[in-house]
């Protein structure tokens, strides 16, 4: 028993000794592994925090090394912080720029410079002293608006109205028996029909047009008065580009009965689209109300309605008393009364608005063309002034820089980088001068193109409307 216990105890000691040796071996391996990791350049966490002064195998040099080439460092910085043309020219001016220039003070500042600077370093120092202030002119170029804008208000009554305007034109034709009377061998009715057709043909293409007759039923006898006074009928309703249909609608109209002007005006409300924005009525009549109505009151109501309607009266061979009464109707409706005595006068009255409109379009065109040219020339002048002033500054800056360079050359030894520095100074002038030239030219051409385009658009639009009006009134 004792021997067995002793044997177990000895084996336990041997086993524990073996485990201790393995742990020591594992620890040794771990330490070796850590050492390898510390020497591994790919191990970011253990990368040396401080570089050696020089490592010929890696080509790494301490940035603080006094032997580092300053020109190489400058080139690296330029690559990392490349500036746009505008950014280079928007830098603040030098201490002696503009009216601050004083050659003696400049030379005193140059005397303070070290004698071992590179060409780039000298150039930087010279610009800190003598760079001119290009910022106002570069800013002008950067923010310049090359668009030419002319937006003069167009004359009312265009041949084609804008979508936002919905015009309704109502023509009321007196078909009472008195319209049978003749003037110069032609009945008043025939003259009125021709004038109405001519007028309708001139209306804007997308205007809404209605033609209504009144007093066209019954006769002038007392027994037919009620029927005639109740007679008013819309015989055409369409767009301005469909008025060629009016002639056919008028063919069957014969003068016959009484004169219910008030009743006809009341019926106009039925003809007007609720979406109408502008409504105008033209009443062609040879006499006054004969049915007991109050046309002046109805005209006033139309003028004050939701769709404001202007009532114009054209009196065709009306006597003085009739003219007085019809003038009251037109005034109440916010319109005008015009008296004519023959068919040509009637046509002329209806064409008068278009003759006036043609003149307005002519003035609109001429004013717009003038405004476009004036605005273009003003912008061209602004560009030229900025360009010329900036180029003048570049010349002035170059003169001051060359004077400073000459002074440095006289006070420094033969190692002074005169040739390289002269090249940089002249490149500076070429850069600033060329920027002003090229940018100014680009903007000038853009303004010219835009101005000519606006001028041409105004001219074309004006001429088209003038020609359309001429063609319509010459029919």
Would you mind describing this structure in some detail?
This protein is α/β, with parallel strands linked by helices and 475 residues long. It has helices at 2-38, 70-80, 85-89, 103-111, 119-130, 135-142, 188-201, 225-229, 246-251, 261-271, 295-303, 320-332, 343-411, 418-473; strands at residues 54-55, 60-61, 167-174, 182-183, 186-187, 208-214, 232-239, 278-285, 309-316, 334-340. The strands form 3 sheets. A 6-stranded mixed β-sheet has the order 7-6-3-8-9-10, with helices on both faces. The protein has a two-stranded antiparallel ribbon with strand order 1-2. Strands 4-5 form a two-stranded antiparallel sheet. Strand 8, helix 11 and strand 9 form a beta-alpha-beta unit. The protein is rod-shaped.
Largest β-sheet summary: 6 strands, mixed
What Rg, in angstroms, do the CA atoms define?
48 Å
- Stretches where pLDDT is under 50 for at least 5 consecutive residues are 1-80
Portion of residues in beta strands equals: 5-15%
Count of DSSP H/I helices: 14
Helix content: 55-70%
- Principal-axes geometry comes out as rod-shaped
Strand order of the largest sheet: 7-6-3-8-9-10
Mean pLDDT: 80
How far from one another are the termini? 146 Å
**SSE sequence, one letter per element:** HEEHHHHHEEEHEHEHHEHEHEHH
What is the multimeric organization of the chains shown? Answer: single chain
Q: Would you count the extended β strands for me?
A: 10
Q: Which class do the helix and strand fractions yield?
A: alpha/beta
């Amino acid at each position: 028993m004792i021997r067995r216990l002793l044997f177990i105890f000895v084996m336990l000691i041997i086993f524990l000794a073996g485990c201790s040796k393995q742990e020591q071996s594992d620890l040794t391996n771990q330490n070796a592994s850590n050492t390898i990791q510390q020497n591994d350049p790919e191990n970011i966490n253990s990368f040396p925090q401080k570089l050696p002064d020089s490592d010929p195998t890696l080509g790494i040099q301490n940035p603080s090394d006094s032997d580092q080439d300053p020109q190489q460092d400058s080139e690296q910085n330029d690559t990392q912080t490349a500036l746009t043309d505008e950014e280079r020219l928007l830098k603040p001016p030098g201490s002696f720029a503009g009216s601050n220039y004083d050659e003696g003070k400049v030379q005193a500042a140059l005397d303070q410079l070290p004698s071992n600077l590179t060409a780039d370093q000298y150039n930087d120092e010279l610009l800190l002293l003598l760079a001119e202030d290009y910022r106002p002119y570069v800013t002008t170029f950067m923010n310049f608006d090359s668009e030419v804008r002319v937006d003069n208000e167009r004359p009312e009554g265009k041949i084609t109205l804008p979508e936002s305007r919905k015009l309704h034109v109502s023509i009321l034709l007196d078909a009472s028996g008195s319209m049978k009377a003749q003037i110069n061998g032609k009945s008043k009715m025939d003259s009125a029909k021709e004038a109405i057709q001519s007028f309708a043909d001139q209306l804007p293409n997308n205007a809404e047009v209605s033609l209504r007759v009144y007093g066209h039923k019954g006769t002038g006898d007392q027994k037919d008065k009620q029927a005639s006074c109740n007679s008013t009928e819309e015989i055409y309703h369409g767009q301005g580009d469909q008025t060629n249909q009016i002639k056919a609608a008028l063919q069957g109209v014969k003068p016959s009965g009484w004169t219910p002007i008030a009743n006809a005006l009341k019926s106009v409300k039925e003809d007007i689209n609720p979406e109408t924005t502008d409504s105008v009525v033209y009443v062609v009549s040879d006499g006054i109300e004969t049915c007991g109505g109050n046309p002046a009151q109805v005209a006033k109501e139309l003028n004050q309605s939701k769709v404001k309607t202007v009532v114009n009266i054209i009196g065709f061979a009306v006597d003085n008393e009739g003219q007085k009464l019809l003038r009251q109707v037109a005034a109440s409706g916010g319109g005008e009364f015009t008296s004519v005595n023959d068919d040509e006068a009637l046509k002329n009255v209806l064409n008068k608005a278009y003759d006036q409109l043609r003149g307005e379009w002519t003035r609109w065109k001429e004013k717009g063309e003038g405004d476009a040219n004036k605005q273009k020339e003003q912008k061209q002048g602004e560009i030229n002034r900025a360009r010329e002033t900036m180029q003048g500054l570049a010349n002035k800056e170059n003169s001051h820089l060359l004077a400073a360079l000459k002074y440095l050359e006289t006070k420094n030894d033969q190692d002074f980088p005169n040739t390289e520095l002269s090249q940089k100074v002249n490149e500076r002038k070429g850069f600033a001068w060329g920027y002003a030239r090229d940018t100014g030219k680009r903007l000038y051409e853009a303004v010219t193109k835009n101005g000519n385009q606006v001028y041409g658009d105004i001219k074309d639009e004006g001429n088209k409307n003038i020609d359309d009006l001429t063609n319509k009134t010459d029919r």
